[in-house]
């Protein structure tokens, strides 16, 4: 009786997963085996392993890596600082508020800010450096992406730091560890789960960014996401788009697995 | 396993129920569909005042949705999720839509204002006797440049863009046919080439332009060139007209090697609900005064002869936007090259974009 009612409550969830997760995934897999005329082919997979797409995959990973690293470099100290402030919930809210604004609007704002006649270049000019080409460079691409992803990095790290028992830190200091040693050997290892979660939240979506590549990087940066979008909307080569998507999904699963809780660090801790 | 099969069957069953409900909903909307008209058009491609005026005159509520490439539009109409009553595709997309039977034939009786159209733009190869389409605007692909920023260099041809002076100066629109066409034209090939080696050469040639390319962008190119962010852009004529109106330093040229002559046409896709309303709208837009107002707002060239007479001389006499018949000779209309060749164009363009840096 009990299991029956449990099954019943499970139903909406299973149903949702099946209809909106499994079925689309199945479709993606199915399409990846079709050519332009909808006939079965393995050609898409062959095409993926040509230099063009491998290069594309490599550069996507490289940019996603840069974005994750820089987000982490900014987010960790910020989160650390946040836990030390008096009104931390308020500060946290202030950091999260910008993420309520539509992504596209924020990206458009950067078009103006980074423009040749924008405020950043005006500042550089006053500083005597002279105007620089900011838009349509990989620098601006990484910077804008980092800006957009920072809240996703801060939140999990903040939660991990907030849950950290302060007496452990005090104990470390009492036993003579410098603040750097305390951070390196106590605080950071104990919040590594937050860092992992943050990196997942940033790295994986970064692989498939596509709006920013066009607006900020002017297609000078192409990611897997751009290629998928192009194949579905422009080329109409759904098969190839689906094939790239399959590889993207595989990459995501591998990343989840590598950075997941079942990773080796967890074993060490136990 | 049994559970898995059962879940799967239930999912299928529910999916069918959804399809049924949607069909019923659509049917019931059809009864009241006379009140709305869903227009699927390019961004910023009709005067909003005219839409208001149309709503006032007919009592039909207009829903205006936009797309930014023919391909994106085609995909959406093929899927058929939305009941678009009117779309404005370019000529090669129309031949494709005709092939796939995505269009509803027009009732010419309901379009008396058709008489004002210039016969030069009627009965063209992509749609004989205009059975499915009515021309909306036409124009060219060319180069817009900032005279001040370019200096004493003159730009008259595609090949001028390869000049080393223009390092990191050029913005391109994100269109496979447009940019591949530019590559082909710069080699004096036809922009409808289906020859694989010619296309490869065109891609190689485009690749050598990479150092001069600042970015490949969408509609933002208007803002970027208008603000002087870059001195040179490869754009459609109407885009150029619009920003030249705002920035006097800009000039537009149709390259001498030849270029593309395109038509955007009003069609009624298979997804339409309000076919009568769509006809009303087409006829409304063909009215010379409305057509002139629209042409002045949008900046593209009108195929409406009567409207052209109503336009001020400085617009209608401008050879850059209403090119002489001699120049028009060198312009080519995009042919529908078929799925395979088109996919090849797109693949080459994508490769070009991936290898840009």
From TrEMBL, chain A:
GO terms for biological process: transmembrane transport. Gene3D superfamilies: MetI-like. It is a multi-pass membrane protein. It comes from the Bacteria. The chain crosses the membrane at residues 12-33, 61-83, 90-114, 134-158, 197-217, 237-259. Keywords: Cell membrane, Membrane, Transmembrane, Transmembrane helix, Transport. PANTHER family: INNER MEMBRANE ABC TRANSPORTER PERMEASE PROTEIN YDCU-RELATED, INNER MEMBRANE ABC TRANSPORTER PERMEASE PROTEIN YDCU-RELATED-RELATED. This is Spermidine/putrescine ABC transporter permease.
UniProtKB/TrEMBL annotation, chain B:
Spermidine binds at residue 92. Pfam families: SBP_bac_8. GO terms for molecular function: polyamine binding. It is found in: Periplasm. One of its GO terms (cellular component) is periplasmic space. Keywords: Periplasm, Signal, Transport. GO terms for biological process: polyamine transport. InterPro entries: SBP, Sperm_putr-bd. PANTHER family: SPERMIDINE/PUTRESCINE-BINDING PERIPLASMIC PROTEIN (PTHR30222), SPERMIDINE_PUTRESCINE-BINDING PERIPLASMIC PROTEIN (PTHR30222:SF17). This is Putrescine ABC transporter, periplasmic spermidine. It comes from Jeotgalibacillus soli.
């Amino acid at each position: 009786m009990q299991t029956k009612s449990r099954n019943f409550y499970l139903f909406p969830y299973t149903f949702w997963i099946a209809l909106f997760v499994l079925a689309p995934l199945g479709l993606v897999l199915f399409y990846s085996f079709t050519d332009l005329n909808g006939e079965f082919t393995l050609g898409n997979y062959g095409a993926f392993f040509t230099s063009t797409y491998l290069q594309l995959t490599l550069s996507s990973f490289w940019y996603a890596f840069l974005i994750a690293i820089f987000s982490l470099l900014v987010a960790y100290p910020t989160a650390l600082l946040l836990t030390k402030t008096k009104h931390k919930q308020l500060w946290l809210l202030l950091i999260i508020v910008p993420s309520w604004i539509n992504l596209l609007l924020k990206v458009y704002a950067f078009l103006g800010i980074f423009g040749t006649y924008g405020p950043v270049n005006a500042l550089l000019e006053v500083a005597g450096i002279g105007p620089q080409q900011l838009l349509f460079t990989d620098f601006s691409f990484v910077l804008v992406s980092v800006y957009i992803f920072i809240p996703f990095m801060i939140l999990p790290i903040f939660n991990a730091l907030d849950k950290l028992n302060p007496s452990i830190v005090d104990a470390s200091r009492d036993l003579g560890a410098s603040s750097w040693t305390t951070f390196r050997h106590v605080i950071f290892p104990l919040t590594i789960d937050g860092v992992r979660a943050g990196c997942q939240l940033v790295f994986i979506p970064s692989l498939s960014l596509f709006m920013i590549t066009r607006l900020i990087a002017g297609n000078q940066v192409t990611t897997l996401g751009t290629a998928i979008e192009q194949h579905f909307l422009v080329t109409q080569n759904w098969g190839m788009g689906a094939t790239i998507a399959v590889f993207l999904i595989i990459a995501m699963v591998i990343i989840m697995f590598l950075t997941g809780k079942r990773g080796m660090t967890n074993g060490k801790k136990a | 396993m049994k559970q898995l099969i059962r879940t799967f069957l239930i999912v299928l069953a529910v999916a069918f129920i959804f399809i049924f409900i949607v069909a019923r909903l659509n049917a019931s909307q059809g009864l009241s569909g006379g009140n709305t008209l869903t227009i699927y058009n390019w961004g910023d491609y009709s005067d909003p005042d005219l839409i208001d005026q149309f709503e006032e005159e007919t009592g039909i509520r207009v829903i205006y949705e936009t797309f930014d490439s023919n391909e994106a539009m085609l995909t959406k109409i093929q899927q058929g999720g939305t009941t678009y009553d009117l779309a404005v595709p370019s000529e090669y997309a129309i031949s494709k839509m005709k092939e796939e039977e995505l269009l509803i034939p027009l009732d010419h009786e309901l379009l008396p204002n058709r008489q004002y159209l210039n016969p030069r733009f009627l009965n063209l190869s992509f749609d004989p006797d205009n059975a499915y389409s009515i021309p909306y605007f036409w124009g060219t692909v060319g180069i817009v440049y900032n005279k001040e920023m370019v200096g004493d260099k003159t730009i008259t041809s595609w090949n001028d863009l390869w000049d080393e002076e223009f390092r990191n100066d050029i913005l391109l629109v994100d269109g496979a046919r447009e940019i591949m066409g530019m590559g082909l034209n710069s080699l004096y090939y036809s922009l409808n080439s289906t020859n694989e080696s010619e296309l490869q050469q065109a891609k190689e040639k485009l690749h050598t332009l990479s150092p001069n390319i600042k970015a490949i962008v969408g509609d933002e190119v208007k803002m970027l060139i208008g603000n002087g962010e870059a001195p040179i852009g490869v754009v459609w004529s109407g885009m150029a007209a619009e920003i030249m109106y705002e920035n006097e330093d800009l000039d537009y040229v149709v390259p001498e090697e030849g270029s593309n002559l395109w038509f955007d046409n009003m069609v009624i896709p298979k997804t339409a609900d309000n076919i009568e309303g769509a006809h009303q709208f087409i006829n409304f837009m063909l009215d010379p005064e409305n057509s002139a107002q629209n042409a002045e707002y949008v900046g593209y060239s009108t195929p409406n002869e009567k409207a052209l007479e109503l336009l001020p001389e400085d617009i209608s006499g401008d050879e850059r936007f209403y090119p002489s018949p001699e120049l028009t000779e060198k312009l080519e209309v995009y042919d529908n090259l078929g799925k395979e060749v088109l996919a090849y164009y797109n693949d080459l363009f994508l490769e070009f974009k991936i290898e840009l840096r």
